[in-house]
Specification:
The structure is a homodimer of 226-residue chains.
Chain A lengths: L4 E6 L3 H13 L2 E6 L2 H11 L3 E5 L7 H11 L5 E5 L5 H7 L4 E5 L4 H21 L1 E4 L2 E4 L4 E4 L2 E4 L2 H12 L4 E3 H9 L4 H18 L6 E5 L3 E5 L1
Parallel strand pairs in A: 1-2, 1-3, 3-4, 4-5
Antiparallel strand pairs in A: 6-7, 7-8, 8-9, 10-12, 11-12
Helix pairs in contact in A: 2-3, 6-8
The first copy, chain A, binds a DNA duplex (30 and 30 nucleotides) through helix 6 and helix 8.
Chain lengths: 226, 226
Amino acid sequence: MSASIKILLAEDEPALGQIVKESLETRDFEVILCTDGEMAWKQYLQHKPALLVLDVMMPKKDGFALARDIREQDKRTPILFLTAKSQTSDVVNGFHLGGNDYLKKPFSMEELIVRMHALLDRASQREDLETIRIGQYSFNYPKQRLTFKGDDQYLTHKETELLYHLAEQRNQVLDRSLILKKLWGDDDFFNARSMDVFITRLRKKLKQDPSVEILNVRGIGYKLIC
Amino acid sequence: MSASIKILLAEDEPALGQIVKESLETRDFEVILCTDGEMAWKQYLQHKPALLVLDVMMPKKDGFALARDIREQDKRTPILFLTAKSQTSDVVNGFHLGGNDYLKKPFSMEELIVRMHALLDRASQREDLETIRIGQYSFNYPKQRLTFKGDDQYLTHKETELLYHLAEQRNQVLDRSLILKKLWGDDDFFNARSMDVFITRLRKKLKQDPSVEILNVRGIGYKLIC
DNA sequence: AAGGTGTGTTAAGCAGTGTTAAGCCGTAGC
DNA sequence: GCTACGGCTTAACACTGCTTAACACACCTT
């Protein structure tokens, strides 16, 4: 049995929740059913599901509030809202972007499945898009991994962030002070020394491909060549 | 799976924008859709796309104004304008040069794709052109390297910039004061002395090929012979 | 609670870059 | 041929950046 995809379903109406859960399980999803927003939050933290299906109207914490909390720490996992007809669609529209979708009640199981698959596909596509080519390396930003011909290195968080910013401005000068403010919060002497160290470490990790270089532009910043 | 090419699409008509976006996405482009000029500007700064497709008529900032702003800091990224039939062609023609093109509405997706590829190909060719021949040397501007028969020298940032400007005006006189203002910010006594030093250093690095010379034109500037 | 591992910071000395200084050289104008 | 000026060259200097190692702290495991 292949590892099935984990779904978090939050629906306060017990009958509906149970039907959807069972129906999804016959289609090989693993479903965690929650009956209110707070429970959903706890279960989300514990299970990190691949997709969330959230009723908007729920006790303790509604679907939007929950989504906001989740988005604070997780910009990627897609969320599908279930809304009653009466819910004003402009609120929903605010969320109908960036890995979110919604479905009006009542809905058929077929509709739900189609939308779920659409979201899951998009999310898996994004995986590829999140992989950045740097010369012969491929750099997976969210996974903090740098791969060179199958040879995988793990980057720390700060290394990742720094490399990401360098890669965003590849072949252009990235301002030193800007990066210090963004990653260290302040451009002072000690943070600058710390950044020196990180540049050295990145250079070391990038030297498998000699066509990739981090050049210094004195007094201004760095330039990632690739 | 190669990282797909990032495109910024600015189109205020939502239906058209969405169709084009989706259509391009099926062709393996990554599309950032913006609905007005200001949003496009912000997204441009953040994503640095490989190509911009801009509707000329847009809220907040029209396509031409946006292009002007972008060209101030970025002379390379190609821009494709989408124009209504009514738009006067002389304005368009002003931009129909230097990495720009335009397409009249209504257009077919095929036309758009063809033009986009034409622009992207031209841009990638230019990448190669970043290696400049100077006599027997090859000078890679972004990599700050000067190669003579496999013998590689590293140039500092200022050396690189100076040589680049000399090479741009090869066999013509490059104005002393102009360079001082451009690279040193001001034409004063001390900066002029500093520039003398850099000219000396460049001459030293260029003397492997005796047919390459930096000649002085007394009181006016320098001329790179090659 | 103790020990281990990993991450980011601090420290110290060295290397590279661009600026300043000083004296010399070559050419134009007299 | 002399002078004045602009340009050339070398060396020394200040400052920025580079590198290595040691360190402190948080987190994990037992």
